[in-house]
Design goal:
The protein has 15 helices and six strands. The chain is of the alpha/beta class. The structure holds guanosine-5'-triphosphate and magnesium ion.
Length: about 475
């Protein structure tokens, strides 16, 4: 019965409170008697015991601070699962987008898992001595090194035995931060993601871009050693200063910081650090390697999707602008063009929203088009002036007869509306009237020469094929 249980609970609570009060009282009494005995001790002993107590408090506080200290800033990016990635890639392939690279990345992921080798990537800015380091690290390998930056142009793998005794494959990659080396840098980054662990090589203090690169690797949760090469250039005092500085700058991201002189095959404690880093073995490190590759693939797939959508948006806008040109010429009575074009404009909005996966209601479309008409009413003179200038600039249009000015104006309007909307949808993932309106305003006012030439061609083609 609920009444009984409430009474029972009250009783238990009362007993609990009484017990607690009794305990408190007993503790207080004990403390007082201890204090009394303490005070009755000889003064020397009092000091000794007092000192010991203070020391215990200090040690306890230090332990608490140590336990509660901020840990490594490592909350690795969690990749979407493989199945969802595969289905996105399949959709892209059906749409004729180029997905070869994405597919082969997945194949490489599997190939490496099955090879059960440990993969290590040696990564860092140009000329930091990555290739020289590999020559010292993998007996029998002869990677080319040179004072000229950008010596390593592609990824090369060297096989051997890791300090753990396991088989390993060490990747020499192009250096990052090379002028004009964006593609090579991308290749290097992809290889770094494919590795179980990464050596990040620098040759002195970290620059801002190097620190950012290190953080990027850390975000993927890569087991990571920061290897400072060319230490033969510094005195031991300078080395200590450098280490202290790097400890601070690298924000706890690397698992260890090591000084080496690759050219003199002086690897210091790098082999030991590698042994510790790779101790879990290929199979145990595979999970986070896969996570990093999938996270990288997710980004690349999103880029391909964005590119494909932008191209598709362009095709849609072109198609509707062409129809608007034809619609303008088909107007049989004053105002009928607005009806025809209104339906076309609604179709354009629907097609673009569908492409970007944004759900829109008929009311939202109507609202948007009402606002577009308002923008056009105040901008008509601008649009007509632009169209008039285009007619002069592309005299071929004049030969197409009357009404061309009107038709060209519609081409410009639809092209601007489509572009404004596509850009807004891509960025906001929603139908944002104010944003789309502002973009439309800008596009109507500023139609560059190449855009005008393209629209003049479109108008001419549409009218000739009519
Ligand atoms: N002083 C000194 N120079 C070194 C050391 N290691 C490499 N170097 C020199 O640094 C230069 C660049 O070495 P690489 O091994 O080609 O450097 P990398 O990082 O592979 O360069 P890229 O492939 O161009 O990105 C060469 O002239 C090396 O001789 C070292 O320990 N000490
Ligand atoms: Mg190199």
């Amino acid at each position: 019965m609920p009444g009984m249980s409430r009474r029972l609970r009250t009783l238990i609570a009362a007993i609990g409170i009484a017990a607690f009060a009794w305990l408190l009282f007993a503790a207080l009494e004990r403390a007082l008697s201890l204090a009394q005995r303490f005070m009755s001790l000889p003064e020397g002993l009092r000091w000794v015991i007092g000192g010991l107590l203070a020391l215990m408090v200090v040690l306890g506080a230090a332990a608490a601070v140590w336990l509660l200290r901020p840990r490594k800033p490592r909350a690795p990016i969690i990749a979407p699962d493989r199945a969802s990635l595969e289905s996105r890639i399949a959709v892209l392939r059906e749409s004729d987008a180029n997905v070869e690279e994405l597919r082969s990345e997945l194949d490489e992921l599997d190939r490496r898992r099955l090879s059960s080798s440990i993969y290590l990537a040696v990564f860092g800015e140009i000329s930091t001595g990555k290739s020289t380091l590999i020559a010292a690290l993998v007996p029998g390998s002869t990677p080319a090194s040179d004072v000229r930056g950008g010596t390593t142009r592609e990824v090369t793998h060297y096989e051997g035995n890791a300090p753990t005794g396991e088989h390993w494959t060490v990747a020499d990659v192009p250096g990052s931060a090379e002028a004009e080396g964006n593609d090579r840098e991308r290749v290097a980054r992809e290889e770094a993601l494919r590795a179980h662990a990464v050596l990040y090589v620098c040759a002195g203090d970290l620059t801002r871009t190097q620190a950012a690169e290190l953080r990027w690797l850390g975000d993927f949760g890569k087991p990571l050693l920061l290897v400072v090469n060319k230490v033969d250039q510094w005195t031991s005092g300078e080395r200590e200063q450098l280490i202290a500085r790097l400890r601070e700058r690298s924000e706890g991201i690397p698992d260890a910081i090591l000084l080496v002189s690759a050219r003199h095959a002086d690897l210091g404690s790098l082999p030991d650090a590698l042994r510790r880093l790779l101790a879990p073995g290929a199979a145990a490190l595979e999970g986070q390697r896969e996570n990093a590759v999938l996270a990288g693939l997710h980004e690349r797939t999103s880029e391909t999707e964005a590119l494909w959508r932008a191209a598709e948006a362009e095709r849609i806008v072109h198609r509707y602008a062409r129809r608007a040109v034809v619609g303008a010429m088909a107007a049989v009575a004053p105002g009928t063009d607005l009806v025809i074009q209104g339906a076309l404009a609604a179709g354009l909005v629907r097609a673009l929203a569908g492409l970007y996966g944004v759900r829109v209601t008929e009311v939202e479309i109507e609202d948007l088009l009402r606002q577009v008409r308002l923008t056009l009413r105040t901008g008509t003179t601008v649009v007509l002036a632009v169209a008039g200038n285009a007619m002069k600039a592309f005299p071929g249009l004049g030969t197409l007869g009357g009404g061309v000015l009107h038709a060209f104006a519609y081409a410009l309007i639809f092209d601007s509306l489509g572009r404004a909307l596509a850009a807004s949808l891509a960025e906001r993932h929603a139908l944002d009237q104010a944003d789309a309106g502002a973009r439309l305003h800008d596009l109507l006012a500023d139609a560059g020469t190449s855009r005008l030439r393209r629209l003049a061609e479109l108008t001419g083609d549409a009218l000739r094929d009519r």
